[in-house]
Design goal:
With about 290 residues, this protein is of the alpha/beta class. It has one domain (about 1-290). It contains 10 helices and 10 strands. A hairpin with a 2-residue loop joins β8 (about 225-235) and β9.
């Protein structure tokens, strides 16, 4: 019952024209930033520590741009409940995808590294750009609320993507391998590991940061190709995601080198337009500042 109500309300919201949606977003931005102050202390701390070379006025400017975009992204994501494949292809374009498809035709599966940057929810439309009969999957962290979990799985799967619980990743990929099915699997690999799992650290945004290395292990174990998705916002409600090859032979790299390459690419993406990164999460809760 709760799920049906949530889905009904989400669909109603998704039918709002973009012009009205962004007018609503502008109003909600003021409420979120100035009235509620949603996670402002976390955002400010993340920005100040990540960009020590920037003065407070510039930090505040990035902060406000982030909250404006954050509200846009939330409302844009609601559009997944009703948007057509044709419309999402027009608004979320994937470039250099022909190289990925060429590898798939050669019988090679692909790992795609991405971050909480731009509208990562719209990245679930990637299967629309891939070779047919390819398993397009995205690894996600299971939600505690069952109704919200069901709702998110529904909208993320409308364009053909399969959502795989991060704890079942190996089982899912092994099943595909045993069935000799090719796949393209997206990993949002910039999440912070739990303290007891923080074993490997990398320099990232002026922090000595603990990082997850599971994506690298899976990529090497199954012999996947390794690519990074470099997302740009080309306009309000429009994005381009470019496939960038991380390395031609991931298995030949020393341990953790593939993970380091990913974070180097992600950092460059963030430095280009920092307001498009998700600054509200405690990404550096187990990290240390490099200048400390």
């Amino acid at each position: 019952m709760i799920y049906r109500l949530l889905l009904f309300l989400l669909k109603l919201l998704s039918y709002i024209p973009y012009r009205v949606l962004y007018f609503l977003s502008d109003g909600l931005y003021y409420l979120l930033y100035y009235v509620v102050g949603y996670r402002r202390k976390i955002v400010r701390r993340n920005l100040v520590e990540s960009f020590p070379e920037k003065g407070l006025p510039e930090i505040k400017q990035i902060e406000k741009k982030f909250y404006r975009f954050f509200m846009d992204m939330i409302l844009e994501s609601c559009k997944l409940a009703s948007i057509s494949p044709e419309e999402i292809r027009r608004r979320m374009k994937f470039t250099n995808v022909e190289q990925v498809n060429a590898l798939l035709r050669q019988g090679k599966s692909v790992s795609v590294y991405l971050g909480h940057y731009g509208n990562w929810e719209w990245v679930s439309s990637m299967p629309l750009w891939l070779e047919k009969n390819i398993a397009g999957a995205q690894i996600y962290h299971k939600l505690r609320n069952k109704s919200m979990e069901r709702l998110m799985l529904h909208i993320r799967g409308r364009m053909g993507a399969v959502s795989v619980d991060m704890h079942k990743t190996a089982r899912y990929i092994t099943g595909l391998a045993n069935a000799r099915r090719l796949c393209v699997v997206g990993f949002i690999a910039d999440q912070s590991p739990r303290k007891q799992e923080s074993r490997y650290f990398l320099p990232f945004l002026n922090h000595k940061t603990p990082v997850l290395t599971g994506t690298e292990k899976i990529t090497k174990h199954y012999g996947f190709e390794a690519w990074y998705l470099d997302v740009r916002r080309t306009g309000r409600g429009y994005y381009e995601a470019e496939f960038v090859r991380l390395h031609e032979k991931p298995r030949t790299l020393p341990d953790f080198e593939l993970t380091a390459l990913y974070f180097q690419h992600l950092e460059q993406t963030i430095l280009r337009e920092p307001e498009l990164y998700l600054w509200t999460h405690k990404r550096f809760k187990h990290a240390q500042k490099l200048d400390s």
